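Sequence only, no structure available. Ideas?
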Amino acid sequence: MAGPRERMVVSAALLIRERGAHSTAIADVLAHSGAPRGSAYHYFPGGRTQLLCEAVDYAAEYMIARLDAADSCLDALDELFRGYRKDLQRSDFRAGCPVVAVAVEAGDPDRPDQSAPVLARAAAAFTRWRGAIATRMRADGIDEPRAEDLAVLTLSAFEGALVLARAARDVEPLDRVHAQLRSLIGDQMPARKRTPR
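Reply:
I predicted one. Tokens follow.
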């Protein structure tokens, strides 16, 4: 079982994806995680900034593990969209991407000392995801320049579809983008590597 520190990081990521970074206070994380009250500054001496950074790192690792576990880039795509489709419906369309939430809320010009490290972590997470997607595509026979382009398109389209679905409170944008990406990526793969949906 995870200790209080790990529970707080996971809770922070889950709360950020539903509420956003600004609306997620340390008190909320403590309540959600069940961690003892005094533990926040014991485990996170850098305060809320450190907790946000580690929540982003956790989200990055979680996504990388999901991508790496798939048998092909199409399976990874299916798992990604299917998983978030369920999360959206289960959360009444509140569950977005914690890395996006942090990225769009981290640019506070009045607090660059707090914003800069969090934004850097978000940028690093997106870079890692793009790399993992491109690597998976190359392993499935898509040439390197095309895999890099498709990785950027896939990540951008997925995150955009997630925002549209949350705003509309409807999974239709997610389903449409999934189908289009699957077709586009599948067309770039050797026939033997394609998996039916």
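The CA atoms of residues 15 and 156 lie 22 Å apart.
Hope that gets you unstuck.
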